[in-house]
Write a structure and sequence with these properties.
Layout (H helix, E strand, L loop, with lengths): L1 H8 L8 H58 L3 H16 L3 E7 L1 H6 L7 E8 L4 H9 L1 E3 L14 E4 L6 H10 L3 E9 L3 E10 L13 H86 L2 E9 L5 E3 L16 E9 L3 H32 L8 E4 H15 L6 E5 L6 E4 L1 H17 L6 E10 L5 E9 L22 H6 L5 H11 L3 E7 L3 E10 L12 H4 L16 E5 L3 H13 L3 E5 L5 H8 L3 E5 L7 H9 L8 E6 L5 H7 L2 E4 L4 H24 L1
Parallel strand pairs: 11-13, 17-18, 17-19, 19-20, 20-21
Antiparallel strand pairs: 1-2, 1-6, 2-3, 4-5, 5-6, 7-8, 7-9, 10-12, 13-14, 14-16, 15-16
This protein binds adenosine-5'-diphosphate.
Adenosine-5'-diphosphate binds next to helix 10 and helix 12.
């Protein structure tokens, strides 16, 4: 405007007449018009500039807000919180009516990468106020196939549905999202595909007050950038949660391992405690009988004296004399006298017998303890195998009865037997089943007061058409066992605590051994008991039809009374036996025991002489110590076995090392474990001899 005024002021004052004035006026007008046009253009440009400035200011503000939101998103560690910030921002900052965030379901998200179907559900929404609509969103589950958006990360990864879109796919999405026009931004994770969808838009009714989806670039660019940022944040949260889960899993693993270790430590401590207790108990248990075994012979020995006497070679008379030089002839027959040493007993023979019985009883007890420990150690190392044989219930109980009668004949308790299925035969390791029964009966004897009653029964029972078993029961009216102890007494080294139990001694191994022996047969053992009333111990042995009559043993021999398994007392036999051992005490005791049972015995202490003696005597039985100096038992065994003339000789290898059982059996020899007593020795010999006899009878019949 200033320029127009200036132009007007500079007009010439009537210079040169009217023609000139007309030209000037025209020129001025056109100049004026041009200037006015320029002013208009300038003002329009100024206005545009102002709008642009305003837009730039807005964009700057928006990006500042975006940066702020991104910063907030980075601090969040839960999907719900991220979702609510995102949808809130979309609605209020971009002025849309509604917004939704759908994420892959957590479990599926983790497992989805191997499967094709990921399900998405709504984790946050804004602008939905109607309860039905909220309910609809909470039920909404979409598969990837429901939203087939381009997956390329080059692409914006967004979809725009406008209000006039008539595509059926657009309609389906409208029904899902309850919006008429909207953008869908996919949230991507590198290599793992879509992790979710971010939706913003409007319903038809309100769209005219909102940002329209037609304004594509002005909103898609910042929203895409927001969606990308949200993708990264969500991926971080996923990683964080995965780490958390892993940490929790590791924590749990550590806690479990710690618990297991602590349990193992407790168990180890308990085992150490029990073993310590066991050793203390065993030392007591061993010392008690050893006390008698060591002291009684010492006391008895003092009753004997060795004295020098004169002996008449003519009439066998003996004379005591202080005079070593005597030349006097025998006063009886005038014969020649010789000096000799004789042993004189000054004690009471009845008292000696009582003491000897005591030593025998204590020795048996000691042997029983040692056998328990050895049995247990063999079982611990899995070195026990079963020697099945057919035996009738009757024979089994008869044998047990016989053994028990001998061992408890001084105990005033009534032991009764009842076995209705007496003739029933089954296949078991008879020695081991007898061991279980004897152990249960001995326990009943121990824990039942004098005058008490013990009952032993056996019956063959049928569980169903196929399963048959023999059930044994040993019951007593003794002290009984508390409920909480009824399980643990079957564990090794366990005894019921209490002075009455302690008073009876024992290693606490009998029931553990019994349990293992029964279980080796495929059976089970248990107890029912009431303290103060008594106990009932049961065990069952399954009868396998195929085992009832094994082909190696002729069925006729099973129930035949003449061929029953011999008892210890049946051991009176006329076998000829050669015993080879470098231990002279073993030889002396073996000779005595075997001769007492009717055997003729030759003993050899030098292994080098063993073969010649055996060849000369051709015994029924040869007992060889496995570990002899010089030629060992195994070498002698092989030498004898190689000699056809000695084919009929039963060879037993004897050793105290129970780990050698398998090796001895593998050689084809009979395993005779040390220590043995008269009963176990005779029983072993009889069992094997009878088996040989019946096997050779069977062969010759065949
Ligand atoms: P032990 O050699 O000590 O007898 P066992 O294993 O045979 O070992 O028995 C373990 C414990 O079970 C015994 O010490 C005793 O406490 C208890 N027990 C076994 N049998 C009986 C019974 N018939 N009556 C009462 N208690 C019993």
């Amino acid at each position: 405007m200033a320029r127009i005024d200036e132009l007007k002021a500079n007009q010439p004052q009537n210079a040169g007449g009217s023609a000139n004035s007309d030209t000037d006026a025209t020129r001025l007008r056109s100049e004026n018009a041009r200037l006015q046009e320029q002013v208009r253009l300038l003002m329009a440009a100024e206005s545009k500039l102002y709008t642009l400035q305003e837009h730039l200011n807005k964009q700057q503000l928006l990006y500042a807000r975006l940066a702020e939101v991104s910063r907030v998103l980075n601090t969040l560690l839960s999907f719900d919180e991220i979702g609510s910030v995102l949808v809130h921002f979309a609605v209020y900052e971009f002025n849309f009516e509604r917004s939704l965030l759908l994420l892959a379901k957590e479990r599926e998200y983790r497992e989805s990468f191997s499967s094709q179907t990921i399900q998405f559900e709504v984790v946050a929404s804004e602008g939905y106020y109607d309860n039905d609509e909220k309910e609809h969103l909470s039920q909404l589950r979409l598969d990837e196939s429901d939203l087939p958006l381009p997956q390329s990360t080059q692409d914006t990864g967004s979809l725009r549905v406008q209000s006039d879109d008539t595509d059926p796919f657009a309609d389906t999405l409208r029904q899902h999202f309850l919006m008429n026009e909207f953008f869908v931004f996919q949230l991507l994770r590198k290599e793992e595909g879509r992790s979710g969808y971010f939706v913003v838009g409007n319903t038809r009714e309100q769209a005219r007050y909102q940002t329209r989806v037609e304004q594509k670039d002005s909103v898609t660019v910042p929203l895409t950038s927001l969606a990308q940022h949200a993708s990264i944040t969500l991926a971080n949260v996923h990683s964080y949660l995965a780490l958390e889960r892993e940490r929790a899993r590791l924590d749990q693993m550590v806690a479990e391992r710690t618990r297991e270790l602590s349990e193992a430590l407790d168990a180890a401590n308990e085992a150490v405690r029990l073993k310590g207790e066991f050793l203390a108990k065993m030392s007591h248990e061993l010392r008690t009988p050893l006390n008698s075994i060591v002291n009684v012979p010492a006391a008895l020995v003092s009753d004997y004296q060795e004295v020098e006497v004169w002996y008449c070679t003519g009439c066998d008379a003996e004379f005591q004399s202080e005079d070593d030089e005597t030349e006097t002839p025998c006063p009886e027959c005038d014969g020649r006298l010789e000096q000799r040493t004789v042993t004189v007993c000054e004690g009471d023979p009845a008292e000696h017998l009582r003491f000897l019985k005591l030593v025998k009883q204590q020795g048996d007890h000691l042997l029983h303890l040692v056998e328990d420990v050895l049995d247990f150690s063999r079982m611990e190392s899995g070195r026990v195998s079963l020697n099945y044989e057919n035996i009738s219930v009757k024979q089994l109980i008869d044998d047990v009865q016989q053994t028990i009668r001998v061992s408890i004949k001084n105990e005033i308790r009534l032991v009764t037997y009842d076995y209705p299925d007496a003739e029933f035969c089954f296949s078991v390791d008879a020695l081991k089943i007898k061991q279980v029964l004897i152990n249960l009966i001995n326990n009943s004897v121990k824990f039942t007061a004098h005058g008490g009653k013990i009952h032993v029964s056996a019956a063959a029972l049928q569980e169903n058409a196929i399963d048959r078993y023999v059930r044994f029961e040993v019951s007593d009216d003794g002290i009984g066992i508390a409920k909480e102890q009824q399980q643990i007494i079957f564990e090794s080294f366990r005894q019921v605590d209490g002075s009455s139990t302690r008073a009876h001694g024992g290693a606490g191994l009998g029931l553990a051994i019994s349990k293992q022996l029964v279980e080796l047969h495929g059976g089970r053992i248990w107890v029912e008991s009431t303290p103060g009333v008594g106990s009932r111990f049961f065990f069952e042995i399954p009868v396998h039809p195929a085992q009832r009559f094994p082909s190696s043993v002729p069925p006729a021999s099973i129930s035949s009374p003449q061929k029953r398994t011999p008892r210890a007392e049946d051991a009176a036999c006329d076998y000829s036996v050669v015993v080879v051992d470098n231990d002279l005490a073993v030889l002396a005791v073996s000779r005595r025991i075997l001769e007492l049972h009717g055997c003729s015995v030759v003993t050899v202490s030098e292994s080098s002489q063993a073969f010649d003696t055996v060849l000369e005597t051709r015994p029924d039985i040869l007992i060889l110590d496995l570990h002899m100096p010089g030629q060992g038992g195994e070498a002698v065994f092989k030498q004898v076995r190689a000699e056809r003339l000695l084919d009929n000789t039963l060879i037993c290898l004897s050793t105290a090392d129970h780990t050698e059982e398998d090796a001895v059996k593998a050689l084809g020899a009979v395993w005779l474990p040390k220590p043995w007593n008269a009963q176990s020795l005779c029983q072993t010999l009889n069992t094997h001899m009878k088996q040989r006899i019946s096997a050779s009878a069977f062969e010759s019949e065949g």
